[in-house]
Amino acid sequence: MNDPFSSPLNLVHRFLPASSGEIQHSETLLLLHGTGGNENDLIELGRSLAPTANLLSPRGKILENGMPRFFRRLAEGVFDEKDLIQRTHELADFVLAAADHYGFSQQKITAVGYSNGANIAASLMLLRPEILEKAVLLRAMVPLVPETAPVLTGRKVFLASGLSDPILPIENARRLSKMLSDAGADVSFHPIQTGHQLTSGELDQARIWLAGSA
Ligand code: MLT
């Protein structure tokens, strides 16, 4: 029996098993919402991006003026790095505990993050690269520069960024793209003629990328 207060499975979350019932052999999408979101926000997006996948959707437990986030920030775009590192490891341990609890494979996990969720997904790639096979980063920036560069050979990343995003500047997204590919990841970078809001075109591209990078 899992006690949510004493195990790493300690984030409020939803888990939706693959429609085939083949939990263990299916890919799992780790859905990571933006600031002010919750575990319900990205379920529909996850279903449309990968209709046959398991979905694991945690809620960030940091509250900023009542709005859930995955880690603390000191100002917009200025992160509390100590907290970010701690929350990244907590999230990684949560994912491993969830794999154990629900019976999905630890080798087939794809993060799908938006904004604050994309930033912690990028941090997961940099600090705990064993957790993610792939990541779809929708509006991300460099979350931190790790002390030791990770080895990301075999990891795949789809990064979509708004050319006029006032929150996550495009130059910063370009730096993230370079940082990930310098570490060996196969990065598909999409600078898009838009701001912080998602567009249907990029979600179509992400769906095609996910289907093709299986
Ligand atoms: C962050 O704090 O992760 C970014 O500034 C994006 C956001 O506004 O959540």
Keywords:
11 strands; seven-stranded mixed beta sheet; Rossmann fold; binds D-malate; 23% strand; alpha/beta; 214 residues
Any overview of this molecule?
It contains five helices and eleven strands. The chain has one domain (13-212): Rossmann fold. The strands form three sheets. It has a seven-stranded mixed beta sheet, with helices on both faces. It has a two-stranded antiparallel ribbon with strand order 4-5. Strands 6-7 form a two-stranded antiparallel sheet. It is globular, with a radius of gyration of 16 Å. The protein has helices spanning 43-49, 81-102, 116-127, 170-182, 200-212; strands at 13-16, 28-32, 54-58, 62-64, 67-69, 73-75, 78-79, 109-114, 134-138, 156-162, 186-192. The model is unreliable at 1-5 (pLDDT under 50).
What's the layout of helices and strands?
Elements: E1 13-16, E2 28-32, H1 43-49, E3 54-58, E4 62-64, E5 67-69, E6 73-75, E7 78-79, H2 81-102, E8 109-114, H3 116-127, E9 134-138, E10 156-162, H4 170-182, E11 186-192, H5 200-212
Parallel strand pairs: 2-3, 2-8, 8-9, 9-10, 10-11
Antiparallel strand pairs: 1-3, 4-5, 6-7
Helix pairs in contact: 2-3
Summarize the model shown.
The protein is of the alpha/beta class and 214 residues long.
CATH class: Alpha Beta
How much is the average pLDDT? 95
In helices, the fraction of residues equals: 25-40%
Q: Which homologous superfamily in CATH is the superfamily? A: Alpha/Beta hydrolase fold, catalytic domain
Shape: globular
Distance between the termini: 34 Å
C-alpha-based Rg, rounded: 16 Å
Q: What is the architecture at the second tier of CATH?
A: 3-Layer(aba) Sandwich
Give, in spatial order, the strands making up the sheet with the most strands. Answer: 1-3-2-8-9-10-11
Supply the number of helical segments: 5
Structural class: alpha/beta
> Which segments are poorly predicted (pLDDT under 50) over 5 or more consecutive residues?
1-5
What portion of residues belong to β-strands? 15-25%
CATH topology: Rossmann fold
Total strands: 11
* Hetero ligands: D-malate
Question: Largest sheet, if any?
Answer: 7 strands, mixed
